[in-house]
Design goal:
Radius of gyration: 16 Å
Distance between the termini: 12 Å
Number of strands: 12
CATH superfamily: Aldolase class I
Number of helices: 11
Length: about 240
């Protein structure tokens, strides 16, 4: 199981939000410094989110993110503000290993097949942001149907992996909700990376035992509630 620390970028700064609300941002400083720190500690890759893009300012932070990708030469998955095939292709050409498509994947599912055919399935990761079992889009404001049904549709279109975020617990640092994860993993045939609520090594062990391919850590990691070495030990343990 792989661990991807989140590097969420808002207005050029590394931040963490609570429940996706920009007004609840905690600022941590320079994104590249945090990216290097997590990689130096052994992270399997970085989960970068262009929050300005997610809030409609797609080009903001673009140069900063490109520089970070080139500098670290690490595995990078990236989401936020990807509104078209051209946006996604631009990032993949820049060197992002896989793009995360959320609202776009729901609004225009055919882009998954288009990108998978051109770049390979392994580089296309639809984001399943779910609240109460329903996919949420447009900044987690609009419900769009069953997260399990969408997962199956995304797979059928050629997605090589899925990113599942439990919006109900995201950013709260109170632990994961494992049952929705298990339900998804029982249906999914492609690797699933899980985000939302991971606050202890025990959460990571539970996800690994359930069959998750990876986990994204954010708020609890930056707040010091959980430490990357212990998380990596739990994720990489041979049992």
């Amino acid at each position: 199981m792989e661990i991807y620390p989140a590097v969420d970028i808002l207005d050029g700064r590394c931040v963490q939000l609570v429940q996706g609300r920009p007004e609840a941002a905690t600022v941590y400083g320079e994104p590249a410094a945090w990216g290097r720190r997590w990689l130096d500690l052994g992270a399997d890759g970085l989960h970068i989110v262009n929050l300005d893009g997610a809030f409609g300012r797609a080009q903001k932070n673009a140069d900063l993110i490109r520089d970070l990708i080139k500098e670290t030469n690490a595995f990078v998955e990236l989401g936020g503000g990807i509104r078209s095939v051209e946006d996604a292709a631009g990032w993949l050409d820049t060197g992002v290993d896989r793009v995360i498509l959320s609202t776009l994947a729901v609004r225009s599912p055919e882009v998954i097949k288009t990108l998978a055919d051109e770049f390979g399935s392994e580089r296309v990761m639809p984001g399943i942001d779910a609240r109460g079992g329903e996919v949420m889009i447009e900044g987690w404001e609009q419900p769009a149907g069953s997260y399990l049904a969408w997962a199956e549709r995304f797979e059928a279109l050629g997605a090589g992996a899925l990113l599942y975020t439990n919006v109900d617990v995201e950013g709260l640092q109170q632990g994961i909700a494992i049952e929705p994860v298990k339900d998804l993993l029982a249906r999914a045939r492609v690797p699933v990376v899980v985000s939302g609520g991971i606050s202890a090594a025990a959460d990571v062990r539970a996800l690994r035992n359930a069959g998750a391919a990876g986990a994204v850590l954010g708020s609890a990691l930056y707040a010091g509630k959980v430490h990357l070495p212990e998380v990596l030990e739990a994720a990489h343990a041979k049992e």
